[in-house]
């Protein structure tokens, strides 16, 4: 965690609703989850930046599909999770490892957050969290390769980070997520306020990201499975009473799948 990290973070939109995050200063850049190379190459050449590293959170094509073409132009390290099928990784990472991006004076700690995929990781450093498709603004990723139990634990690890942690996730899903969150927790005033704010943000065609861990703790139903109103909603959805937070989580994750 370098307090002196001198990068700032820029979203490069890709596909329909992906964000490729570019960490940059005046000369150098690193890129997180480049699902497509072209928008990154366009950005780098327009800004006259040299790519110095590629970071991947998980193996889905919309996060790693551009790596090969970026490597044709830049001979850089490629960081990503151990035990996921990602071609051309130069360093496979597990829980607790650190990576350094010396050109940007930045360092990141690896947090294992399985659930969306079996070995999904997040990068955490200098109060920034890059969390791919695990924690979304007001939502969470689908369970493709993991269990509800795993995802609940993974989200709990992220929720324990400091409130001011900036959350950079992989997709602009925020308004749809908020619509679901409002159905699950209609009495949450912070959530109602967030709906107003983020609706305006999207009307102005701006990203709703980064979020913060504090905002997610206050409004994201998947981090709030011990709240009475969410327990009641999950029980109503299931048609039987549940109280265990993992069961509550599993219920609202299923509910969201066909909301
Ligand atoms: Zn994914
Ligand atoms: Fe994705």
Helix count? 9
Instruction: Please tell me how large the radius of gyration is.
Output: 18 Å
The hetero compounds bound to this protein are: zinc ion, fe (iii) ion
Whole-number count of domains = 1
Major sheet details: 6 strands, mixed
Helix content: 25-40%
Write the H/E string, N to C: EEEHEHHEEEEEEEEHEHHEHHH
Q: Structural class, from helix and strand content? A: alpha/beta
Approximate strand percentage: 15-25%
Overall pLDDT score: 97
SS elements, strand count: 14
Under the CATH scheme, which architecture would be assigned?
Answer: 4-Layer Sandwich
| Overall geometric form | globular
From the N-terminal CA to the C-terminal CA, the straight-line distance is 39 Å
CATH superfamily: Ribonuclease Z/Hydroxyacylglutathione hydrolase-like
CATH topology: Metallo-beta-lactamase, Chain A
Question: Would you state the CATH class?
Answer: Alpha Beta
Spatial strand order of the main sheet: 1-2-3-4-5-6
Poorly predicted runs are none
What report would you give on this structure?
By secondary structure, this protein is an alpha/beta fold. It is built from nine helices and 14 strands. A six-stranded mixed sheet has the order 1-2-3-4-5-6, with helices on one face. Helix 5 (174-184) runs antiparallel to helix 6 and helix 8 packs across helix 9 (245-257). It binds zinc ion and fe (iii) ion. Zinc ion is lined by residues 58, 60, 63, 116, 133.
């Amino acid at each position: 965690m370098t307090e002196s990290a001198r990068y700032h973070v820029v979203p490069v939109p890709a596909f329909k609703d992906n964000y490729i995050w570019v960490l940059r200063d005046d000369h150098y850049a690193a890129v997180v989850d480049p699902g497509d190379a072209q928008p990154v190459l366009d950005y780098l050449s327009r800004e006259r930046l040299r790519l110095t590293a590629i970071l991947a959170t998980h193996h889905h094509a919309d996060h790693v599909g551009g790596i090969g073409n970026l490597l044709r132009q830049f001979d850089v390290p490629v960081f990503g999770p151990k035990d996921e099928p990602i071609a051309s990784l130069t360093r496979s990472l597990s829980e607790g490892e650190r990576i350094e991006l010396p050109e940007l004076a930045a360092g990141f700690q690896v947090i294992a957050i399985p659930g969306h995929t079996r070995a999904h990781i997040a990068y955490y450093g200098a109060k920034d969290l890059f969390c791919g498709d695990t924690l979304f603004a007001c939502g969470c990723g689908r369970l493709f390769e993991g269990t509800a139990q795993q995802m609940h634990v993974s989200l709990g690890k992220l929720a324990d980070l400091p409130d001011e942690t900036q959350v950079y996730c992989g997709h602009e899903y925020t308004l749809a997520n908020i619509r679901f969150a409002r159905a699950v927790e209609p009495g949450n005033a912070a959530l109602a306020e967030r709906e107003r704010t983020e609706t305006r943000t999207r009307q102005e065609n701006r990203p709703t990201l980064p979020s913060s861990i504090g905002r997610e703790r206050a409004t994201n139903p998947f981090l709030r499975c011990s709240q009475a109103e969410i327990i009641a909603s999950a029980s109503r959805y299931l048609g039987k009473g549940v109280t265990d937070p993992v069961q509550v989580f599993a219920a609202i994750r299923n509910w969201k799948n066909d909301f």
